[in-house]
Amino acid sequence: MRIVSLLPSATEIVCGLGLEENLVGVTHECDFPPFVRQLPKATRTLIPKDAGSEEIDRLVRARLSTQKALYSLDLDTLEELRPDLIVTQALCDVCAVAEEEVQAAACRLPGRPRVVNLEPQTLSQVFDAVRQVAQAAGVAARGEEVVRALEARVEAVVARTAGVRRPPRVALLEWLAPPFSCGHWNPELVRLAGGEETLGCEGRPSRTLTWDEVVDAGPEVVFVSCCGFDLERTLVDVDALHGLAHWSALPACRAGRVYVADGSQYFSRPGPRLVDSLEILAHALHPEIHSLPAALPAAVKRPG
């Protein structure tokens, strides 16, 4: 079976199922496991590489107002790859090629490849997405093994969290210019890690905030994981907030409990590494009970 993945989390699911040799094409953003960077790219982006956070926000809002996607398919490459299975998503119009474009392309390809749309909004639905891809690829039993191993790690975090007497008030922010609450699975990760998410709702999309809303929420911990940004790029935006009145007014800043993580590799990808994200977050919130697995990077602590 020849598989093309049209989003990074699907690429990680495919590889997590042991189907690396079947993966023949990925997106321009797929970078994990590292070998996928060498595979043919079936998508391109309309966002300039050097765009700042506010410019990206304007571009996203402008494109979505016209119902046009920010990514497009490279149809010539897709045809050359001759996929039997295309894995894409219908959850977020910002994060991938539009579902309609994928379906239309599949209809024109020789052999009419099967298209699997992933649309998880909670952690359990992410595990279901793993099963869905495994079923489509003919490795259902392997999918169950992968899910059981991931669930065991989640259960271990939950067991340790049970001893937390008072969960701290947390604001996990997915963007800073303007601020966005966390959404979908991330508020759930905060709860499982032993925190109380103050701005995001489990299973619901992230939303635009004002800094007044963030201040009014009174977060004791701010955890920043900007969607699509690596750690270095996120730190630029976080450090630019230092000294601003709203930022300095946050209890988390006054207590020195601001943490920054790689939102491109973690938290924003609904695949197997969401469990890594949970472990990173749990360690930041409660390092005394949640040790950090050796292979994972700790969230970076920044001064308020």
Description:
With 304 residues, the chain is an alpha/beta fold. The protein has 2 domains: 3-119, Rossmann fold (3-Layer(aba) Sandwich); 165-302, 3-Layer(aba) Sandwich (Rossmann fold), CATH 3.40.50. 39% of the residues lie in helices and 15% in strands. It has helices spanning 8-16, 53-65, 75-81, 99-108, 123-136, 140-161, 186-193, 211-217, 231-239, 245-248, 251-254, 274-285; strands at residues 3-5, 23-25, 43-45, 71-73, 85-89, 114-118, 169-176, 179-181, 196-197, 221-224, 258-260, 300-302. Strands 7, 8, 9, 10, 11 and 12 form a 6-stranded mixed beta sheet that branches. The radius of gyration is 19 Å and the shape is globular.
Please outline what is shown here.
This protein is α/β, with parallel strands linked by helices and 304 residues long. The protein folds into two domains: 3-119, Rossmann fold, CATH 3.40.50; 165-302, Rossmann fold (3-Layer(aba) Sandwich), CATH 3.40.50. The protein has helices at residues 8-16, 53-65, 75-81, 99-108, 123-136, 140-161, 186-193, 211-217, 231-239, 245-248, 251-254, 274-285; strands spanning 3-5, 23-25, 43-45, 71-73, 85-89, 114-118, 169-176, 179-181, 196-197, 221-224, 258-260, 300-302.
